Automatic annotation (TrEMBL):
Domain Methyltransferase type: 47-144
Database matches in Pfam families: Methyltransf_11 (PF08241)
UniProt-recorded name of the protein: Class I SAM-dependent methyltransferase
InterPro entries recorded: Methyltransf_11, SAM-dependent_MTases_sf
Top-level division of the source organism's lineage: Bacteria
Keyword field contains Transferase: yes
Keyword Transferase set for record: yes
UniProt keyword list: Methyltransferase, Transferase
Single Gene Ontology BP annotation: methylation
GO MF: S-adenosylmethionine-dependent methyltransferase activity
Length: 263
């Protein structure tokens, strides 16, 4: 199994299970679930590729759906199993998004690819992960593919918080000095892309895009403000976010995006 040692080290020490719990983190979760619920039907079978600790898999299994999970990192699998309730119709196995040969063609109604594309750096690997997700999905089934978006991360982690040095990234060749487009390597952990990169990647697949969603919008950039909101204000913010998360003029100002397409 091809593994990135930087990735294993990161997830062995990162609390992935809690990432989507704070108000600002829940925006991504609630948005993704909102779109899944738009398409999922009673009796549907779900595959989550790169299931992590199972935040989405468990949420769907607890709603009565049959869910299979595939996860690369053993540490995440251990937490996934720990969080499994007896009544859940759910499985988890260790595997790689690039090789789902353990799964037959055309068997899942809903396929979630909500993490692997964060950590694939070549066009060939990204295409292979999407090809495998498409293969195991039924004709007419829906695939949800998530990405980390460079501009949202640059605004939040770079210019706003100073957790990354934009100047250093330019000097090191990780940011184009004219366009500020990003490029990443395995040691950088996350592959940062823009919508035009996703459009180019998807152009070779015989699928129909249903939605392109700025999954968390400005939630990370505004995290302190959002976390301090009372419940009424937070619900109003969510209503605003849901109303604007597919607007093309706001598509780049997000840290995560969700590409939803039909086989």
């Amino acid at each position: 199994m091809n593994t990135n040692p930087y990735l294993i080290e990161f997830y062995n020490h990162y609390d992935e299970d809690q990432r989507l719990v704070p108000k600002h983190g829940s925006v991504e979760f609630l948005t993704t679930m909102r779109y899944i619920e738009k398409y999922i039907r009673p009796g549907d079978r779900v595959l989550e590729i790169g299931a992590g600790t199972g935040r989405y898999s468990h949420a769907l299994a607890r709603r009565g759906y049959s869910v299979d999970g595939v996860e690369l990192i053993q540490h995440n699998i251990d937490i996934f199993r720990k969080n499994t309730l007896p009544e859940e119709n759910i499985t988890i196995c260790q595997g790689n998004a690039l090789d789902l040969s353990a799964f037959p063609d055309d068997i899942y109604d809903i396929t979630l690819l909500l993490g692997p594309l964060y950590h694939l750096y070549s066009k060939e690997d990204k295409e292979q992960a999407i090809r495998e997700a498409v293969r195991v999905t039924k004709q007419g089934g829906i695939i949800f593919a998530a990405y980390v978006i460079s501009d949202g991360c640059l605004l939040d982690e770079g210019f706003h918080r100073g957790n990354i040095s934009v100047a250093d990234y330019v000097r090191e060749g990780l940011l184009d000095p004219e366009t500020f487009g990003a490029k990443s390597e395995p040691k950088d952990l996350f592959e940062l892309v823009r919508k035009e990169d996703i459009d180019e990647l998807m152009s070779v697949f015989p699928v129909t895009r249903l939605h392109y969603v700025a999954t968390d919008g400005c939630a990370l950039l505004l995290r302190e403000n959002i976390d301090s909101m009372d419940e009424e204000t937070f619900q109003l913010y969510l209503k605003y976010h849901f109303a604007t998360c597919e607007r093309e003029d706001l598509a780049g100002v997000t840290s995560h995006a969700l590409d939803i397409f039909q086989k």
